[in-house]
DNA sequence: GACCATTTGTTGTATTTACAACAAATAAGA
DNA sequence: TCTTATTTGTTGTAAATACAACAAATGGTC
């Protein structure tokens, strides 16, 4: 067993840590940038789907988005055909912050992939997508209460 | 910019989530498995180094390890030549839990890498190590209070 | 239409996480 | 040796995270 998953964990924690420190400048507290980005990229998305995309707990997403709303970065709108769901949209302020987040992400991308050729970057992306799809299935199952057998 | 870092984040959160659910069975609360594994693999390590390896905040590691100690899974021993540091060792109970964690990790490894050939796994590992080393440098710098320019 | 499972959202609560600030031991430099 | 910087560890505090439990709307099935 090569320590692939361990490398992934280290990279993820390090980058998240950096982003959280850097985004304090925009009054974004821990983790908020994740949600804002997804909502900007998918205006009209509902929070349940955001949680699924990010692989965080439903209630965590709910509270993070509540806070984004409270801070005026995101807006909840009623759906005309479905009284249960709230469609999420960035506010003008949210749209304004978005490019700064993307700029930071682009920088982290550059740092992280420094020294990798175009081909290597490509290979890495393809492989990671496959890994993510594999893991995704187990995550959804376990979150629904199913037990993995091994 | 391909969304490599996004894939890494998703994979890391999903796997962490699964592990946390599965390890509740062993009375390990959120995140604790990370610390226990590193201490079992590096008996005598100090908490500062554990935090560095995991890329978590020093104080987070401190409290996680405090709890492991309190729950009888890890033991702190004085160093004979240095009154400042505490050397960490797994207790008998810690050693007992360790293989269960590794078994779970091996299963997650299998799931995550399903469908990847030996060569692909190898390539992925090499590339991720390079990415991790890149990110590591920035993380250490930012954690020390330095500002990244971009 | 009535019934039941699923989806979506919320609140209460416990715990983890991290920043800030401090303290003490050690290491380094003059 | 004295002074200063670095390393290592702790505590106070604020916030995020997730689980459990609940509620309500929806969708499917008979």
UniProtKB/TrEMBL annotation, chains A, B:
It holds the Pfam family MarR. This is DNA-binding transcriptional regulator, MarR family. Keywords: DNA-binding, Transcription, Transcription regulation. Gene3D superfamilies: Winged helix-like DNA-binding domain superfamily/Winged helix DNA-binding domain. Residues 1-133 form the HTH marR-type domain. One of its GO terms (molecular function) is DNA binding. SMART domains: HTH_MARR (SM00347). InterPro entries: HTH_MarR-typ, Tscrpt_reg_MarR-type_CS, WH-like_DNA-bd_sf, WH_DNA-bd_sf. The keyword Membrane does not apply. It comes from Paenibacillus typhae.
């Amino acid at each position: 067993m090569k320590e692939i998953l361990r490398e992934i964990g280290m990279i993820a924690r390090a980058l998240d840590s950096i982003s959280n420190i850097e985004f304090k400048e925009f009054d974004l507290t821990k983790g908020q940038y994740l949600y804002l980005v997804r909502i900007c990229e998918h205006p009209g998305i509902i929070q349940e789907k955001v949680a699924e995309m990010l692989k965080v707990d439903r209630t965590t997403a709910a509270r993070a988005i509540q806070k984004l709303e409270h801070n005026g970065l995101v807006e909840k709108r009623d759906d005309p055909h479905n009284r249960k769901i709230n469609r999420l949209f960035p506010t003008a302020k949210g749209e304004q912050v978005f490019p700064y987040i993307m700029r930071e992400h682009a920088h982290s991308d550059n740092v992280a992939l420094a020294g990798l050729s175009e081909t290597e970057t490509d290979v890495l992306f393809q492989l990671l997508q496959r890994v993510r799809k594999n893991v995704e299935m187990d995550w959804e199952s376990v979150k629904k209460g199913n037990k993995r057998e091994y």
